Amino acid sequence: PKGTMAFTGKYEFEGDENYDAFVQKIGLPSEKVEMGRNCKIVTEVVQNGNDFTWTQHFPGGRTTTNTFTVGKEADMETMGGKKFKATVKIEDGKLVAEFPNYRHTAEICGGKLVEISTCSGVVYKRTSKKIA
Known about the structure:
Layout: E1 9-17, H1 19-26, H2 30-36, E2 42-48, E3 51-57, E4 63-69, E5 73-77, E6 83-87, E7 89-91, E8 94-98, E9 103-109, E10 112-119, E11 122-130
Antiparallel strand pairs: 1-2, 1-11, 2-3, 3-4, 5-6, 7-8, 8-9, 9-10, 10-11
């Protein structure tokens, strides 16, 4: 069944596509653009049924944690540090969240965490390999 996706694990950034075009579209400040380029982000996911804790560890010790329950509105934070409210849904085994200016999906594909963000037709794809 679709509801039993196993997201729990630790994933390290492996590669991305369309980073520059995407961050320009969402208006990320240039110092954050450089910080995020090929950034070895480690994403740690703890899933308990429909409850998720999604933490991103950035080099240099900064972390961002979003805690949410599928189907319920939650307080979230963007990669640029903006706070907003979103309701995460599950569609076709993917987690889907509408961020203020982009749509974000996450799925486990062949043991990797594949995240896709779409803004005005620009598609940014980030792949992370499982390390724990």
